Amino acid sequence: MALTRPVPRAGRPPTTRIPPGPADEPAGAAQYAARLEALLGDPRDPGNPYGRSALRAAGHDGLPAPPAGLPGAGEVQPAADQLARALRPLFRRDLALAHAWSIRPLLSAPMPHPAAALLGPAALLASASGVLRGATRIVDGLSRYERGARQWRPVLASVFADLLACESLTAVALRSCPDRDPGAAGPATDGQGPPRQPGDSLAAVVGYLVPQLVGELLGDLELVLNECGFGDDTPERRSLAKILGDRAFARADWTAASAAQACIVRGLNAADGSLPDDGTELAALFRVTEAPSARAPGTACPQAVAATLAGATDRLAGSDDADTAELARVGRRLVIEQRALRVACAATAVHDPADPAARALADRQALLVLAATALGVREAAAGARLPFLGGAGWALLVLGRITRRLGLPLPLPLPDRTPDPQPGVWDELARRAANGVDCDLYATRLLW
Amino acid sequence: MVSAAGAARGRTAAVALPPPCHVPGPDGPWEEIQEQIEQTGRAVVHTTWGQWLTPALLDPGLRTLLGRDWPRYRQHPAPVGRLSLAVSRVVLKHTAAAALQVPADRLDLAYLPGGRPVLRGLGADLQVSLTHTDELIVVGVSRAGPIGVDAEPTGRRISFEALRDLVCTPEEAELLAALPEKERIDRFLRLWTLKEAYTKALGHGMRRRFSAVGFGWDATGTARLSEDTAGEWAFATHLVEERFLVSEAHRQEAALAGPGGTRAPSLADEPGRLPSAEPSQGTGVIGFPGRPGPGTW
């Protein structure tokens, strides 16, 4: 299966297929992504049919066909997370183009790719990261001679941390998808619809949470750009407006999110206390820089992922590092919240997706899964000696914001330890923006 | 969540927003709220916390109703602030419950990191805004796009000279400076509440520079956002209880599914069906007799 397909009505398939290496290995995905980015050309070039100005002018009905020489993956069906990684240059370029070339074909094929439903949120994240890099360059530049611009650094650092958390959640959901043979994992059914794959319920958390959170983050980015003097008619604001307008097209808007929320509600009391809580079975899912390993079907349900919070928090205890120690304190608060949520969920036999109280429980469940995946990915990255992703700073920022979203008070500051993770996260963000590095989990170097 | 609905589809011209409804207690009456939701996709309620205080505090379900706000209520250092916090949240939940036609204790009030109140898990299905000043409480709810409300006492004395550069665009400041003092203060206060309402609807609050948000006025005296060329936004300012200015900002989007799965009609569906022009009891539309033409004060 090719990673991208021509637009159905555009009618011109890629004329040359150059098989890359196996796309189910990280290196293969990275190589494919590099080729794809090169073929898409410079996004700032006004003469490039895949440039931003041409795509803005094209609208949804006039999107260009894929470039000649677009590499395909032959008959190889890559692992889901590698598929998303390979397609990220396309996602980053334009949400509508991503939908037309890859998401829609993968969704509408006779046997939809198991990851297809996750690609809309993945594409939304990739496109938002482009706006973040642009806003960061602007604020970084202004900050050198305009002190007032520095007030936006913490805002952008928080956006970066939240995006990394959403990337972690999406990567874990993608890694929990069955690959190659969607039937091999043994589809389950709830008797109310088509067979469910094991990763479905985790995909529902992604489908519910990512469109909402990224929507909020895009609002913050719009604020920063506006306050830095970039009005509606600037390329930066037009790019942002296009993403907002394309969300429904890519099935990453509130309508899609509320449908995903209904899936979470129906699964709220799917697990009843017999959950692993040390992350042992799920640890492989968090190692996002490695190829996914075989996994027992069903282990990646939201409750199981949220239950890893306890073990991950325990392993943070006793650290001398101020950020890590604070991360453990915030983590413990979330572990208590997770236990309270399980009790609340178990109090009702059947949750109704139309009940606002059940929808609130689903929201809390989703936020705890987000926290657990952020902690899990951070811990795995620390083990792999990835300096920024394995550090506590970004995760502390994320967990603090999740705690506030849950309406929980943050732990009282310790008298001699008041860690502030924002400056460190900002420094990493500013470095990436200045050096042409993506705001993704892999710190991918960009061509353009 | 910001929206690009205006960029995605055509828009009808903004329609006048009906005035806030007075609701004296948890028992309502709520019919007018439901009617406004059906007709315009949004509704605004006003009351005083003294009217709701007794039923709110005597409600055995108050702790459930306040949810995560319960510790804030219990630990608030000032008695008046404590009661105001409790009653304003109770009013908000009952108003939202009336709009959704569900029991109030099924709703969970949450706050985004920037402080914006949201109903947990309901997303764009129902957006809310809350303001209180002195004894007045105002709640805006919308099933069809973001909403923001703000209120100030009409008697509030504010210094135009001290605040003009923070609140006004240069054009607004120039026009206000040319007015007699009483009229200047009145219009300055109205402008301030409009900008508060607008930035609250965006979810930005005072992080957004008011001096970069320009308003103009059409021939009827209705506020128009200068940068809103697509006509997405509707604004209104009403006099409530004869001593409070209440401003509302609403971005009109297609209404979402209503109770029972029916889609609540939006203003765009029925462009000819305007809300009642009669203000509710205790509410008056702010008028500016002798207003000059569009684009001026």
How would you describe this protein?
The complex is a heterodimer of chains A (about 450) and B (about 300). Chain A is mainly alpha-helical. Helix content of chain A is about 55%, strand content about 0%. Chain A contains 15 helices and no strands. In chain A, α5 packs antiparallel against α6 and α6 crosses α15. In chain B, a hairpin with a 5-residue loop joins β3 and β4. Helix content of chain B is about 30%, strand content about 20%. With about 300 residues, chain B is of the alpha+beta class. In chain B, the strands form four sheets. In chain B, strands 1-2-6-5 form a four-stranded mixed sheet. Chain B has a four-stranded antiparallel sheet with strand order 7-11-10-12, covered by helices on one side. The interface between A and B is large, with 41 and 35 residues.
List the SSEs and their pairings.
The complex is a heterodimer of chains A (448) and B (297).
Chain A: H1 26-40, H2 52-58, H3 80-93, H4 95-108, H5 116-143, H6 153-175, H7 200-227, H8 235-246, H9 254-266, H10 283-286, H11 302-314, H12 322-346, H13 356-383, H14 393-405, H15 422-434
Chain B: H1 5-8, E1 21-22, H2 31-40, E2 42-48, H3 49-58, H4 62-66, H5 70-75, H6 79-100, E3 109-111, E4 117-119, E5 127-133, E6 136-142, E7 147-153, H7 160-167, H8 170-177, H9 181-202, E8 215-217, E9 223-225, E10 233-240, E11 244-251, E12 283-285
Helix pairs in contact in B: 2-6, 3-6
